[in-house]
Amino acid sequence: MTNAKTKVADPDISQPRFSPEDTIKAFELAMGSKSIELKMSVPVKDYRATMACIGFDPVEVQPRQVYFFDTPDQSLNKAGLIVRARRIQGGSGDTVVKLRPVDPATIDAKLRDSRNFKIELDAMPGGYVCSASAKGVCSGQEVLDVIDGAVSLRSLFSNEQHDFYDAHAPEGIKMKSLIPLGPTFLLKAKHQPKKFKRGITVELWLYPDGSRVAEISTKCLPVEAFQVAAEFKSFLAGCGISISSIQESKTKTAMDYFKTQLESAQSVGKEAKK
To answer: What is the 3-state secondary structure (H, E, C) of the chain?
Structure first.
């Protein structure tokens, strides 16, 4: 699989306008995807007012704990590969090996047909990216066992996920060499607004340094993308959410934080050896 020259949503973009070429490329990627996720990050200062406007009930929230796995210098992240495990309230958990950006046309048909494999186009103001994900399930305790070193990281993932990882990980980087980055805590809930005919997902990511990223998203089929995007934009505008707001990536924010922490720890270690 080869990475496409896809326009990735940049958290520094403040003018969310696609060129005609961008629109054509996004349409092509959408037609090769299984689903479309339309998302919008909400300024934290506006989070409470926004949630009240859409009629969101905080009691619906489900807490989750996320761990990323990478090398100390984040070689996987640089290659567009994400390895993640989540603990979910109630004792369950899930895992994913995700690659982005990708061109759906380069993905093997057999892999595309797997029920545990997903090709999805994420679109937000100012950008879009197509990703391919091999998903798996586990228990929350199994995630903790890996973090504690009681079992190997590979035991957490399926054979299909191993194959996907091995095919796209940078040469020489085995899964067993990855270290855990986290946890990051998040609150997630699905909600059916009265003024929007589709369900939405609300996520609030709480990072160890106290920073936060709030996001509202909805999903649709590729053939519905443009119609749903217009309806979603209208709904968000009615909730007082500015579509021109600076967008923040949940994963990027987490990886940037952990990168800073590892660099700081390495610096302290070097000073201690002097």
So the answer is: CCCCCCCCCCCCCCCCCCCHHHHHHHHHHHHCCCEEEEEEEECHHHHHHHHHHCCCCHHHCEEEEEEEEECCCCHHHHCCEEEEEEEECCCEEEEEEEECCCCHHHCCHHHHCCCCEEEEEEEECCEEEEEEEEEEEEEHHHHHHHHCCCCCHHHHCCHHHHHHHHHHCCCCCCHHHCEEEEEEEEEEEEECCCCCCCCEEEEEEECCCCCEEEEEEEEECHHHHHHHHHHHHHHHHHCCCCCCCCCCCHHHHHHHHHHHHHHHHHHHHHHHHC
